[in-house]
Amino acid sequence: MQKIAAIVALSGIATLAAPFAFAQAARVEQSGRTFHVAVCPGIAAKGTARCHAHVVTDSSGNVLATAASPNVTPSGFSPSQLKAAYKIGATSKTDKVAIVDAYGYPTAESDLAVYRAQYGLPPCTTANGCFKKINQSGGTSYPRTNTGWDQEQALDLDMVSAMCPTCKILLVEATTNSDVNLGTAVNEAAALRAHVISNSYGGGESGTQSYEAYYDHPGVAITVSTGDSGYGAQFPATSPHVTAVGGTSLTWNGTTRTETAWSGGGSGCSTIYAKPTWQTDTGCRKRMEADVSAVADPNTGVAVYGPGHGGKSAWLVFGGTSVAAPLIGGLYGALDTTVTYDQNPYQNTSHLNDVTSGSNGSCSTAYFCHAGKGYDGPTGLGTPNTDAAF
To answer: Could you tell me which residues are beta bridge partners of residue 97?
Structure first.
């Protein structure tokens, strides 16, 4: 039964320690039997973005956490379980994968070390040249901290590690969550020759034309989460120069994998950006999101080691399309292949699992918000079936 860990987390049994309160005011949501809250709650104001991670809680919104110990068994999907579900093999690539987020995360390296040690992944440290953290200008004077965005960064670091444990990781911290600062951080990552740049945030499309150029880097795989508020297009996922990653609910029992569209995952038809030539759906005349998808439902969430209330680090369970974007980013890193914006998966659809059921809301054109055979908005072309699609 591998809907597993998130359900265990909900029930408050097994290895879970006493919950602690969530640091921000957030609406408690429910997916299946699992309660969760957005770590960056609210709606992003114009010119800003919010992160798309959800952390599993109890029914009152108290984060469920397990302290690190030699005998701990974290709840949530592990790297080996994710790789098995998506048929991802071992890699020896040392490609550079950049993660762009907002605000400072002082314990990024030490928290990452706990995650990687727990699952037998090789160390990724500043000392061995695998890990590097910079601000949006490339320096080491870091922004102020923000618990929600710190949790987002922990999730991103762990998912890239899960998919490509041998990749180098560059963490770029934008000063704030403004579109300008986040875009500046993306440019910095590209300038430092990251082959992949993962972005787990978004906001409304209105007025974003002046920011789109930040995401136009030929030869760089830029992954962006589609959102966690259900149907509705978001930027930068609607940029024609990125791979927009939607969300699914994943069940994996060690033999059989089943997936449906996650009700919270974003999708939509852009009102601004032109349709890429390789995107051939006919119901949307402009850019359609998503392109591909991966697990995002908190009810089938992933294990992450990161900060909770008061900055104290612990084992947590996460969902949101913030899981999916760095997961796909890690796969791009594991392949170290030539990238033509988001065209690669459209040329390799036989290496994707077609997700044919589930919905993320109501819409006038059925495939915009309902999964079905072939391309659809919530899950795009589908989820990884080996890493060859990327």
So the answer is: 169, 196
Integer Cα distance of 381 and 348 in angstroms:
10
- Residue-wise pLDDT tens digits, 208-261: 999 999 999 999 999 999 999 999 999 999 999 999 999 999 999 999 999 999
The whole-angstrom separation of Cα 353 and Cα 98 is 26
pLDDT at 20 over 50: no
Q: How far is CA 71 from CA 56, 68, 118, in A?
A: 22, 8, 10
Residue type, 271: T
Whether the predicted pLDDT of 144 surpasses 60: yes
Question: DSSP per residue over 333-377, as a string?
Answer: HHHT----TT-GGGG-GGGEEPP---BSS--SSHHHHB--SS-BT
Q: Which residue has the tokens 């704030």?
A: 176
d(CA 172, CA 190): 11
Amino acid (one-letter) located at 340: T
Give how far Cα 3 sits from Cα of 79, 119, 295, 357, Å: 15, 20, 11, 17
156, 326 Cβ separation under 8 angstroms: yes
- Assigned token pair, 168: 């180098």
Judge whether residue 278 has pLDDT over 80: yes
Alpha carbon distance 300, 317 (integer Å): 9
> 315 near 67, Cβ under 8 Å?
yes
> Hey, which residues does 207 pair with through a beta bridge?
none
Find the helix or strand (DSSP H, E) in which 250 lies. strand 243-252
Helix axis angle, 147-163 to 108-118, nearest 10°: 40
User: How many whole angstroms separate alpha carbon 94 and alpha carbon 96?
Assistant: 7
Place of tokens 């965005």: 149
- Joined together, the tokens standing for residue 308 give 């909770």
The answer on pLDDT for 25 being more than 70 is no
pLDDT digits (tens, 9 = 90+) for 173-217: 999 999 999 999 999 999 999 999 999 999 999 999 999 999 999
pTM above 0.85, yes or no: yes
126 Cβ contact list (under 8 Å, min separation 6) = 109, 132, 133
CB contact at 8 A, 327 and 159: yes
